[in-house]
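Suppose a colleague, Dr. K., hands you the sequence of a protein chain of 168 amino acids and asks what its three-dimensional shape might be. Before reaching for any lab equipment, you can write down a predicted structure in token form. Begin with the sequence itself:
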Amino acid sequence: MNIRNLLITATTVTTLIAAPLAIADDHKKKADAKNVVEIAASNDSFSTLVAAVKAAGLAEALSGDGPFTIFAPTNDAFEKLPEGTVESLLKPENKDKLTKILKLHVVGAKVMAADVKPGDVDTLAGESVKIAVADGNVTVNGAKVVKTDIAGTNGVIHVIDTVILPTS
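The predicted structure, expressed as tokens, is then:
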């Protein structure tokens, strides 16, 4: 066997081995890729938020193409609300109020932390929220952003420490 045939054989063997590995790796990446709702649902810290999103009937919409930026309050953030508030909001008769509160946490664009600028930002609730930056801290209507850039297939989640409530 000459050098040329040896190189062709080696290349063919390498391709035959590498191709399935590349396909498997690509499949794993697709399987690991989650939308913003799936990311929240896979994290116990967002169980109250996920329950609220489902009760408001927003899970399907927020699982769509997006892009979305979600300012996601943790369970601890919901616990800061007056006693009984969450339970009351989850009742079917309060679905409209709950929906407005949740949409106040969603911007119809994917905004990574590096792109955040101070000012008013329109939300899906039809009301704007005020983004402030001071001493390296970002707040949204006073809620402190405690973790940023949890990227999903249809947007990004920024974790906040307080539930944002409508002004009206």
